[in-house]
Design brief:
heterodimer, A: 300 residues, mainly alpha, 11 helices, 74% helix, disordered N terminus, B: 340 residues, alpha/beta, eight-stranded mixed beta sheet, globular
């Protein structure tokens, strides 16, 4: 807003700048007071840090096989045990976390962005535009996902980025529908009419008045999208589109663990725990975010 | 162009809604003018088209199904009904503001009161952001909100209905508009608060010289507040004129019947008068006078001929053919009550 040649900001101006982002600042304060949400955020941060820096500090290789050793339960040498090829599970879990968290968060972010924008525009413009946009969603929804993935592989070969493309292509659909529904109901609220009567542009109405009011369901659905994306990645890896051995991801580890759960239960339990912990944290954080962003939920 | 003593001239406004049941002619050929600083009341029962007429002026009718079929609304020489979208947007909220019926839903629950009050100033580029805050505080103080500076940081849900309507008034008047459209601003409020809100609008109007179009179904509200009145029925204006004229010298049987149906406190025990029949179905084209089927004076010619709004006394116009022809003379409802 301020051009560079203007004199330094006065205290009052700073107060205004703070006021601008008041929704987010308030939300942050409310979030910080919510213990459960804070716990979720911290666990999530720890998991992320462990996945990024853990492998380097930990020193165990995720691919070094020790075939004579085979699958062993947790021990001092291998804290979480080893898999059937004698590879250290903790190392595999940490490396897998990189993939799973990246896919989970990035693909959800992509789905969120496309879905929210698409849904808002569709619901806000309404009429024929809305009808056409929603029919496009229906058509994409109707495509069998497996066929779609195989088609992608045939056309572009095995590439890791295709993973995001494939997941993103399906996950934004539901988000767009949810957001459209919200926007449709918001559209006839009087404060939106009032905003129009005040001479606000459509873009400003959408970003300032529509989206904040639709955030609750958006956030809840986003936190639910993350786990389904992580499991989808395991399915895609199985088809050969995701991660390739010896690399691993939580989805892949869980799938392998499930195959051998009767003899070597730890191979399922620990990756399962990692995924569950992430999902719980995300849900707590999502719940907290939803409450924090709603001024009416605040306890004065 | 607008004449010097008027800020808004509406001519032959027609708005209809294209629904599955047919074309609803909500506003059917309405013409009127608004003078600077005056308060014009628009009265009529539900479905008479008074709100739709008001919304049409700022093109806030949802399209589809709504459509402004014809007419023009000249405001400072600009036709609001046919100008470009961006021209209209510069007028909305700046030169013409609007207050809505339900204060509980007309403020964004996610934004602070302060941010909403100063929004018109910011989007119309009136002031720099740092000045806007102070103006917002002043505006809130003017509408009688205690501790305005602190209240700027409150959210709508922390306010009562009456206070929210005060905020809406502050918000609507902060840019000092020439015209304020108030669509039933007191309907959703308690009776005691209603009086306060009307008084506030009246006071702000006098201070700023803002013209007000007050849309209401409450004839008691307009009697106290408005300089001039339009009586609407089935999308048309049946009578218009100065408020006292309309009350003491009614020139249309509908207006007379409307006033007779006001319950009088001093007539304890007497039966409440009503207008027999129901308003006409506006999906069918109406020939002649729309009130004729319910009118005690109606003749064959009332239905057969086209009737327009014509002045029968200075400033006082009626759409009753028989009054125009001088065939009938209506008694004021108030005198009739006294005579009985």
């Amino acid at each position: 807003m301020n051009s560079p040649n203007e004199k330094p900001m006065r205290v009052e101006d700073q107060a205004i700048v703070e006021k601008r982002s008041s929704l987010w600042r308030d939300a942050w304060h409310r979030l910080a007071r919510n213990r459960l949400a804070l716990f979720g955020a911290i666990v999530l941060a720890l998991l992320t840090l462990a996945s990024i820096f853990g492998p380097a500090l930990f020193g165990q290789s995720y691919f070094a096989q020790d075939l004579p050793l085979g699958a062993t339960p947790p021990s001092a040498q291998h804290w979480l045990g080893t898999d059937t090829l004698g590879r250290d599970l903790l190392a595999r879990l940490l490396y897998g976390g990189r993939i799973s968290l990246a896919v989970g968060l990035c693909a959800t972010g992509v789905a969120l962005t496309i879905g929210v924008l698409y849904g808002t525009v569709s619901g806000f413009l309404g009429g024929k535009v809305d009808a056409v946009m929603m029919r496009i969603v229906d058509v994409i929804f109707a495509l069998p996902f497996t066929v779609f993935v195989i088609l992608l592989m045939v056309l572009f070969g095995r590439r890791f980025v295709l993973l995001f493309a494939a997941i993103g292509a399906v996950q934004w659909l539901t988000m767009a529908r949810i957001v459209r529904g919200q926007v449709l109901s918001l559209r006839r609220m009087e404060f939106i009419e009032a905003a129009e009567a005040l001479g606000l542009s459509k873009t400003r109405i959408i970003f300032r008045h529509m989206i904040p009011n639709a955030l609750g369901p958006i956030i809840v659905y986003a936190t639910l999208t993350v786990p389904s994306v992580m499991l989808l990645e395991a399915f895609l890896s199985f088809l050969g589109l995701g991660v390739q051995p010896p690399m691993s991801s939580w989805g892949v580890l869980i799938k392998e663990g499930a195959e051998t759960m009767e003899e070597f239960p730890w191979l399922l339990i620990y990756p399962g725990l990692a995924l569950a912990l992430t999902l719980f944290s995300l849900n707590f954080l999502g719940d907290g975010l939803r409450d924090a962003l709603d001024p009416q939920a605040a306890k004065d | 162009m607008n004449a010097p003593n008027e800020i808004l001239r509406v001519e032959n406004l027609r708005t209809s809604f294209h629904t599955r049941e047919g074309v609803v002619r909500a506003v059917d050929g309405v013409s009127f003018t608004v003078r600077p600083g005056e308060s014009l009341g628009v009265v009529g029962e539900s479905g008479s088209g008074k709100s739709v007429a008001c919304y049409s002026l700022l093109r806030l009718i949802p399209e589809p199904p709504g459509r402004i079929e014809s007419g023009c609304a000249l405001f400072h020489g600009l036709d609001l009904l046919h100008c470009r979208e961006d021209e209209l947007r510069r007028i909305r909220g700046d030169r013409i503001s609007m207050i809505f019926q339900d204060p509980m839903t007309s403020l964004n629950p996610y934004l602070r009161i302060g941010d909403q009050v100063i929004e018109p100033l910011l989007i119309h580029g009136k002031v720099r952001p740092n000045e806007a805050f102070d103006l917002g505080v002043t505006a809130l103080r003017e509408v009688g909100i205690q501790d305005a500076a602190r209240r700027m940081r409150s959210y709508p849900h922390e306010f009562s209905g009456g206070m929210r309507q005060r905020v809406m008034i502050a918000l609507a008047l902060i840019t000092k508009p020439d015209l304020l459209l108030a669509d039933e601003p007191t309907t959703a409020l308690d009776v005691t608060v209603q009086a306060q809100i009307l008084e506030l609008i009246g006071q702000m109007q006098k201070e700023r010289g803002t013209a007000v179009i007050l849309v209401t179904h409450d004839i008691g509200v307009v009697a106290a507040f408005c300089d001039r009145l339009l009586v609407m029925y089935a999308g048309r204006i049946l009578e218009s004129g100065p408020t006292s004229e309309l009350f003491y010298r009614p020139k249309h049987p509908y207006n007379q019947a409307l006033q007779r149906s006001i319950p009088a406190l001093h007539e304890r025990g007497s039966e409440l008068r009503t207008i027999p029949g129901a308003p006409p179905d506006v999906t069918q084209p109406i020939r002649g006078c729309p009130f004729a089927p319910r009118c005690e004076f109606a003749l064959e010619k009332c239905i057969a001929s086209e009737i327009s709004l014509q002045e029968v006394a200075p400033e006082h116009a009626t759409a009753c053919l028989r009054v125009q022809l001088g065939e009938i003379e209506l008694e004021p409802a108030l005198a009739r009550v006294a005579a009985e």
